[in-house]
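Subject — a protein and its fold

Tokens — whole-number codes for backbone shape
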Amino acid sequence: MLTFYSYPNSRSLRVAWALEELGIEYQIHSLDLKSGEGRSPEYLAIHPDGKAPAIVDGELTLFESSAICRYLAAREGRLMPQTLAGQAQLDQWLSFLTTELEQPLWTLAKHTFALPEEQRCDAVKQTAQWEFQRALAALSRRFDGRGWLLGDEFTVADLFLAQTLGWAQKAGQPIPEVLEKWATETLARPACERARQREAHAASER
């Protein structure tokens, strides 16, 4: 049985969502990171930075949401293209989404609430917002908000894009209407809703 280490309202939703889309059976362990559970020796043996998400699947221990979702898709042969060229394009999208589109949003979040107050800097927030809009323009040149990023089928790249745009909406960042509509509809997929509910339930049972 695959074990999934979760922390609600974080990147771990991507893993829960992928698991639900793929129909993989899993047990969920909701981490209480605020109480320091992530720094326990037991969990540091799974994730050396004490963060979420992580999975243990048999003898494999894996962290980083993009690596986990890519592995799960490859394991099941779904949520990813079947050709080598298509898989390369998937990896290209995942790289762009995590390093270009998401990165300034996380920087904005860190300097808004995540970092200790004395480490926050308003000037960095302004730069992060500029960086996000620049990455959003790059996205709009490649994707018009119709269909899916890699053709006719939903893949883990769409999952990552939808969650990232959802974060941007919550952060009050302006998004083109067509992408806002696409993200809202994609985040309404039943598997995403099941993932949210399961993470929330697991957290409430801690």
Observations:
- The first strand starts at residue 2 and ends at 6.
- The radius of gyration is 17 Å.
- The chain is about 60% helix and 10% strand.
- The mean pLDDT is 97.
